[in-house]
Amino acid sequence: MIQDNSFLIPLKDISCEGKSVRITNQEIWTSAFATFNIDAHIETPLTADLTLIKTEEGVLVRGILSGVLILPCSRCTEPTHTPLTWEIESFESLPEPDLDPNEQDLLSSSAIVLENGNPILDLSKLLWEECSLALPMNPLCRPDCKGLCPSCGQNLNSGQCSCQKEGEDPRMAIFRQIQIAKTKNSSKKL
Fold first, then answer.
1. Domain limits at 11?
2. Residue 102 has pLDDT above 70, yes or no
3. CA 142 to chain CA centroid, nearest Å
4. What is the pLDDT of residues 5-28, one digit of tens each?
5. Scanning 34, 55, 168, 179, which has the fewest C-beta atoms within 10 Å of its C-beta?
6. Is 189 inside a domain boundary?
């Protein structure tokens, strides 16, 4: 296993047996969190252990992304320790050699770019995509999180607030006006 903090891997450096790479540089994720304004902090460094297998059409990337992030709970906004273990299996296609590099970026979602005609795998792009897929949509501090009071913002996990509680949800008022008529046939068993 090669300890490699370089994100750009020339395809010519990948032997026919493949290449093992470990990415530990946190810059991939910290810069992306800042760029996309994601409230996430790294508690245990994210590590990607990858195997790169070159083919005639591109590169197969397999591996595991693991670490622990601190994300805000989606109900109460308290910091939540979120372990990540994400399996990566992605095939990155070679770009079209005739395309202008600017057009290539727009038309291709591949993490392989051409530099002076030489294909280079940009692991930072691939790993950020995989990390964004691994993030939970609604992280919770605990499964029974009560969230925040919609009136005063009190964290209901810490205790009840002193807000007046309305007995009925105003969004359901329209349904309280519905009356169901009983007919003679409605009581028959089928």
1. 2-134
2. no
3. 19
4. 468 889 999 888 899 999 999 988
5. 179
6. no
Predicted local distance difference test score (pLDDT) of residue 113: 83
Q: Is residue 155 part of a domain?
A: no
Decide: 64 and 49 in contact? Cβ < 8 Å. Answer: yes
| Domain assignment present for 6 | yes
What Rg value do the Cα atoms of the chain yield, rounded? 26
Instruction: Specify the DSSP element, H or E, that contains 119.
Output: strand 118-122
53-89 burial, b at 16+ Cβ within 10 Å, e below that, comes to bbeeebbebebebbbebebebebbeeebebebebebe
Q: What's the predicted TM-score (pTM) here? A: 0.71
Determine the Cα–Cα distance for residues 144 and 146; give it in Å rounded to an integer.
6
Q: Give me the pLDDT at residue 179, please.
A: 82
CA pair distance 58, 79, nearest whole angstrom: 40
Question: pLDDT at position 52, please?
Answer: 95
Task: Please report whether residue 161 resides in a domain.
Answer: no
Q: Express each pLDDT in 152-166 by its tens digit.
A: 889 999 988 888 766
Count how many domains the chain has: 1
**What is the CB neighbour count within 10 angstroms for residue 140?**
17
Q: Report helix, strand or coil for 176.
A: helix
